[in-house]
Amino acid sequence: MQIESLQNPRIKNLLKLQEKSRERKNQGLFIVEGTQENELAIKGNYEAVEIYLCEDIYHHTINFGKAKVFTITRPVFEKLAYRKSTGGIIGVYKTKAAQLDDLHLPENALVVVLEAVEKPGNLGAVLRTGDGAKVDAVIVCDETVDFFNPNVIRSSVGTLFTNNIAAGKKEDVLNFLQSKNIQIVSTFLRDETKSLYETNFTKSSAIILGTEATGLSDFWADNSDSLIKIPMLGFVDSLNVSNAAAICVYEAVRQRV
Q: Are 57 and 87 in contact (CB under 8 A)?
C-alpha cells in the first residue's frame, strides 16, 4: 500500500508521535528515522510495529520481523523527515521500560549518571559516548525523561538502542548503586574535590554529572565517595555536560585498559 496524502490518518499519527511526548507515552510507541538508526533499533531487540519506506530513496534490506510495511511518496517522506539524507525510512517501534531493576551490570561496572539532563541533544551525545566507550549503563535521575524523543535518537545516531538505559528518582538511583557496591564519583566543587586524573576508576564506578545551569545538587555531593573536577586552564569554569562526560568516561577507560 502506498500512501500519497499528508491527510492519511497514519501520517497524521506519525506527526503526533514525532512532536508530542504525551502521545509517545500514551501509545507506547516512538519514531525512528534513518537507515543506521533503524538497523540499531532492530539489533537492540526493539519491536518494529510499522515501517514507512520511500522507494525513491530507500535501497537497503532490513528484516523488520512482523512489522507492517508501507510505501510513501517523496513529498510525504520529506514532510515527515527531519533530515532528507536519512535513507528514506521511518520506523515506528514499541517503547521499552527503562527501569533500574532491569539493569544487569558486570562485577566491575562503569556507569554514567545524569541528574535532570535538560536538553535532548546533550542526552543523545552522552549516549554516543556511552556506546563508544562501552559503558555498562547510562542512568538519568529524572522520572519524566523521554529517552524516545526524536532529538535524543537523532543526536545519539541510534546509540540509544546500544546502551543499557534507566531512569528514576535520585534516591532510588543512589540505593541501586550502593546495593551494587559501585563507588560514586561526582563532578562537584568543594574543598575536598580533587582532579579527575587523581581518581581511581579501576574499580566499579558511577560518574555523576549535573546540568550546565546549576551543576549537581548537594544530594550527590553529600552521598559521594569522591568529588572530582576537570582541570580548566582557560577563562571559563565548566564544560558542556556531554563534553565533560566524554572526558571523564575516557579517563576511566584509559585506566582500565
A: yes
Q: Which strands sit side by side in the sheet containing 165-167, from one edge to the other?
A: 165-167, 137-141, 110-115, 205-209, 183-187, 226-229, 194-195
Task: Please state, in angstroms and rounded to a whole number, the distance separating the CA atoms of residues 68 and 51.
Answer: 6
Per-residue pLDDT tens digits for 178-231: 999 999 999 998 989 999 999 999 999 999 999 877 789 999 999 999 999 999
Closest CA to 113 of 152, 85, 81, 145: 145
Q: pTM (2 decimals)? A: 0.93
CA 29 to chain centre: 16
Contact indicator for 180, 109 with CB cutoff of 8 Å: yes
- b/e burial code for range 209-233 (CB count within 10 A of at least 16 → b): bbbbeebbbeebbeebebbbbeeee
Render the burial of 22-37: b for 16+ CB within 10 Å, e for the rest: eebeebebbbbbbbeb
Burial, 13: exposed, middle or buried (Cβ in 10 Å; 0-12, 13-18, 19+)? middle
pLDDT digits (tens, 9 = 90+) for 56-106: 899 888 888 999 999 999 999 999 998 777 889 999 999 999 999 999 999
